[in-house]
């Protein structure tokens, strides 16, 4: 490894112009900020690279979110890259599953400082001035199931070796198992740093060698919570240090509120105002999209469950007031229960007891739940447009989505057993 001081940004999963979901349908929501969030996060990355005077930037896949509706997306990306080129900052990029060669029907010449790795085989690019060797291979198609890393070349002696790879490694929850590989294979190449992409949560997989997921630049929905950004990496005298840099402009957060002991709805609304202000203070001036999850058993269940739509709007109004218009409630997730347990209904041989037991069995057996859901939801799935059927929030075959639907069905059952009208 070279002893020269070197700095670079490692980012991935930019998903430029990908729509953010969950806020725009509500009155007063920050529609324009939501629409432009991925662009603003990308601009923040460019400015960070310039401010920190890095030597290069590596992008580990999913620059885009599929084919562009027009050339503006590509032009916007090229403009940002040109800004880096004017300061002598090189960019090394691989394509991932969302921007694979097969998914992009449009193309634009990229600035000369951008090095896009081919998709036929791995390639090594060197910078003798930096003592840098970058190895990478792009996705040719949207679904790559081969171990791309296995064919990456061995490290170049005397250079700082970096591998750029879009991969799920041995698998990560919520992500398709593309370009699977193992830490053992990565380590066998002798590289100093593996710049990974595809997983949207930051993760330092290994420090010897460094194997890092930076997460995506901007959370796109409630399942992508917390700070989002890139890694600022410094290499000095054979030592590597990394720092996560937040680049997001809108942050997603979930607030769990226990209704146990709450005397009435007013007390619950007051508590929500306090919790929203707390979340806003953690966001360092960013807009916050909040999901309120009301849980637990208590007397307030009757009032909340009787008018779920009205209650949701009341919480949205409280959040707007408490935050000065900088926090929006994406959803009010009602998991409240009446002050009794469903187990009480499971005993006996009556239809209610049989139904309660069936729900419990489905919740405990993912295979049975999936099979049952495929039959029950087949017609609905067929009617969903193709783009929505692949939406992470609407994938009716996803285990977490199925469990959520089952939980809502259980809540509805509880409300009806308690003599209520229905729960959200």
Structure notes:
The chain is 33% helix and 23% strand. By secondary structure, it is an alpha/beta fold. It folds into two domains: 6-246, Metallo-dependent phosphatases (Purple Acid Phosphatase, chain A, domain 2, 4-Layer Sandwich), CATH 3.60.21.10; 250-417, no CATH class. The chain starts with 5 loop residues before the first strand and ends in a 7-residue tail after the last helix.
CATH superfamily of the largest domain: Metallo-dependent phosphatases
How would you sum up the global shape?
globular
Total tally of structural domains: 2
Task: Determine and state the CATH class of the largest domain.
Answer: Alpha Beta
Given the structure, what is the number of helices?
A: 13
Rg, Å, rounded:
24 Å
Order of helices and strands: EHHEHEEEEEHEEEEEEHEHHEHHHHHH
Largest sheet composition: 6 strands, mixed
β-sheet strand percentage: 15-25%
Uncertain parts = 420-424
Mean pLDDT: 86
Going by CATH, the architecture of the largest domain would be 4-Layer Sandwich
Distance between the termini: 58 Å
CATH fold assignment of the largest domain: Purple Acid Phosphatase, chain A, domain 2
Query: Strands of the largest sheet, in order across it?
Result: 4-3-2-1-11-12
Number of strands: 15
Alpha-beta classification: alpha/beta
């Amino acid at each position: 490894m070279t002893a020269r001081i070197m700095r670079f940004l490692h980012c991935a999963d930019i998903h430029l112009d990908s729509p953010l979901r969950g806020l725009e349908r509500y009155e007063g929501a920050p529609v324009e900020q939501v629409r432009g969030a991925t662009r603003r996060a990308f601009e923040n990355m460019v400015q960070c690279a310039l401010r920190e005077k890095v030597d290069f930037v590596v992008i580990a896949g999913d620059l885009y979110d599929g084919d562009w509706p027009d050339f503006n997306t590509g032009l916007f990306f090229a403009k940002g890259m040109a800004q880096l080129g004017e300061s002598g900052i090189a960019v090394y990029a691989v394509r991932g599953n969302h921007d694979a060669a097969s998914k992009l029907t449009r193309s634009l010449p990229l600035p000369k400082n951008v090095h896009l790795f081919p998709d036929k085989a791995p390639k090594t690019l060197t910078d003798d001035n930096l003592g840098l060797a970058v190895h990478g291979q792009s996705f040719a198609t949207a679904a790559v199931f081969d171990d791309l890393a296995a064919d990456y070349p061995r490290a170049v002696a005397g250079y700082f070796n970096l591998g750029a790879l879009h991969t799920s490694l041995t698998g990560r929850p919520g992500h398709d198992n593309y370009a699977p590989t193992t830490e053992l294979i990565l380590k066998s190449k002798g590289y100093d740093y593996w710049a990974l992409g595809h997983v949207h949560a930051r993760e330092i997989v290994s420090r010897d060698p460094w194997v890092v997921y930076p997460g995506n630049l901007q959370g796109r929905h409630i399942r992508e919570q917390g700070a989002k950004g890139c890694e600022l990496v410094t290499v000095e005298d054979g030592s590597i240090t990394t720092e996560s840099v937040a680049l997001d402009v809108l942050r997603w957060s979930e607030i769990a509120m226990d209704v146990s002991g709450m005397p009435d709805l007013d007390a619950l609304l007051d508590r929500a105002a306090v919790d929203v202000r707390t979340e806003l203070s953690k966001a360092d001036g960013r807009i916050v999209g909040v999901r309120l999850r009301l849980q637990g058993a208590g007397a307030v269940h009757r009032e909340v469950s009787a008018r779920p739509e009205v209650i949701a709007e009341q919480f949205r109004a409280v959040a707007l007031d408490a935050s000065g218009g900088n926090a929006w409630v994406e959803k009010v997730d009602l998991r409240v229960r009446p002050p009794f347990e469903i187990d009480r209904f499971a005993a006996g041989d009556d239809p209610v007891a049989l139904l309660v037991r069936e729900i419990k069995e489905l919740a405990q057996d993912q295979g049975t739940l999936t099979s049952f859901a495929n039959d029950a939801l087949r017609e609905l799935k067929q009617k969903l447009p193709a783009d929505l059927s692949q939406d992470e929030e609407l994938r009716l075959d996803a285990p977490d989505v199925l469990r959520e639907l089952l939980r809502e069905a259980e809540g509805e059952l509880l409300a009806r057993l308690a003599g209520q009208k229905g729960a959200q």
